[in-house]
Amino acid sequence: MNEESRGRSGSNYKWVGKVTRRPDGVDKVTGRARYGDDMKLPGLLHAKVLRSPHAHAKILSIDTSKAAALKGVKGVVTSADIPDHPEMAPPYPPIINDLHDISRNVMAREKVLYDGHAVAAVAATTEAIAKQALKLIEVEYEVLAHVLDPIEAAKPDAPVLHEHLFTYGVDPKPEKPSNLFRTVNGGRGDVEKGFAEADVIVEREFSSEPVHQGYIEPLACVASASEDGSVELWTSTQGAFVARALCAKLLKMDIAMLRVTPSEIGGGFGGKTTIYGEPVAIRLSQMTGRPVRMVMSRSELFRASGPTLGSRSHIKIGVKRDGTVTAADVVLWHQSGAFKGSPTGRAMDTFFSSYTIENAKVTVHDVCVNRPKVAAYRAPGAPMAAYPVEMALNELAEKIGMDPIDLRAKNAVQDGGESLMGTKYGRIGLNEVLEAAKNHPHYAAPLGPNQGRGFALGYWMHGGGLSSASVNLQDDGTLSVATGNPDIGGSRSSMRAMAAEEMGIDIEAVKPIVADTGSLGYSHLTAGSRTTFATGMAVINCVREIMEKLCALAAKKWDIPGEDVRWDSGQAIAADSHDLPPLTLKELAGMATKMGGAIAGHSEINAGGAGAAFSAQLVDVEVDPETGFVKPLRYTVVQDVGRAISPDYVEGQMQGGAVQGIGWALNEEYVYGEDGRLQNNGFLDYRMPVASDVPMIDTVMIEVPNPNHPYGVRGVGEPCLVPAPAAVANAVENAIGKKMGSLPFSPPKVLKAMQRG
Fold first, then answer.
1. Which of 225, 275, 438, 463 shows a CA-CA span of 20 to 30 A to 124?
2. Which of 607, 624, 651 represents a domain boundary (last residue)?
3. Please, how many CA atoms are within 13 Å of residue 162, restricted to the half-sphere of its CB?
């Protein structure tokens, strides 16, 4: 696809912004790439986990003696083998990693808190023996009442999950425990004054259900403990350093005694940013002295790993006849799952942050329920914050007779503005995104019978943070680029392109690798759309260090002052006054070890200067009037990508977010029975979109470079999901002419809405 058809203007760079051969492509298409389930070691044992059949129950006793006596069983683990930890003390950070809770999520202690909660684990010589052993473990439960809805769970008479949990931030401190962990508030201005100034007010309620990331590769790991106390762990993770820190702290090991190697990752989307079976596999390996492999089945993934949160919300927005939004107020209830800590901060920062609204207020309640502890899912907290806002804005546009995009442009936040939570924007591309969406042929295309068009806008502030990199110059002039971030969306390609661009060499001379935790300084998760931005800056720093050293080497070789040498297009060039021929990278690399030593660049940074990104989406759907079935017909994503370092990957990210949004909006949800047990714990019953469910997805990349990055990078992986469920939902409402509020808009719900008077 050429630059014009991608909606891109092109650049003067040789490698940045160009489609190049994928550095990991051959291994993946040939099956040579090693994923979490591919690691095999001599003497390997197979681990299986016994899981609770109850949503909420006291554990009265566990008898593992029969399982331990079974021939072929080498080890059995319960919560007694996993260290307990004191509760995290307030104040609480935005992302809560409370070892007290993690310990109980990895292995239930006093109570089981959701269907699928781990109770015990065995390691055996074969999977069949391990499964047989699980049936021999005897657990006595006292079944308790359960609660799944966050509003119901926050009521005073609800079954309490944690007797030690008192609502945080309330004065005076409550005397009774509650499932309501905390309530956070934010806003600006005077909303009552703003509503008094409004000509039209929309007030609605919305809800969404938990949805799973649906990564193709299951969670898998292999742990191998040595007699000296050291442990090697291979695992499918989005953050090897985070996995190392959590496992070591949880098991009370010295961090240096645990080395984590991230495997190739078959999808993550945020769902592989924490730990599940890894500590259990480590403990079983320590007990048995043999490597232990643990792979979760698809059913286990649905029942016991973290989906995104479910939500309930109430929104009220007022607008003048000219389109000025005067006030906005929203209350949101998050299902955090069995343990505290949903992404409340990200939700609050998403509400209304695409717009300049003088009077706005947000309240988010974080509530524990008898469901799996939520995990990140691509812009955690943001899609379900954008959903009620974008639905209400479309209704307001309809009521005042204004074009939906014009309404947003009227209120769009501008360069130098700030988010609702006070994050300052620099140069942003929101105006360009809205203009491109309105001028796109899709927006003016005619619609047929039973068809509707939806529009929504999304915002995401990508992360920065801690990243490390090491770039080594080889004797033949090639570069090895080692980073600590697993490649889940093309980071090898972007690191290679930026390194080659900086160095001025052919891109094929750069070999990117993902290193283990013993080889580099700390690198945070591959998450938050941070990797190309933050880790990319670390790589650029490394290459620039190498260029400085090469210029010094050339000056030494020529016996001239160092300031008389510059680096350009892959070679050292002497000032004109010296009349010396350039020295190429290959020539300098060959003489480096003979004239001082190997040359490498290292960088450990805490990257700041992240930039806001905006994504606008147009969706056409057709609704079957007899069944309520919704068929997406056309989809266009317009997004400010800053600078598309590897445009083919960026296009894939934009399309992937749209596909997931279709699933969130139309099909995907966790379905529980009255007993609190998950009923659709496999892909046959959990309805994710497949190729036949989605249309071709057009992408328009708007490139307004982020001034805080050498190549203008903005995060691209998450903004594209933020508005997607709302865009699809708006299209359905437009097609049927009725309002709906409860995601997903499945055929029975749509049919019921159409049949309303």
1. 275
2. 607
3. 22
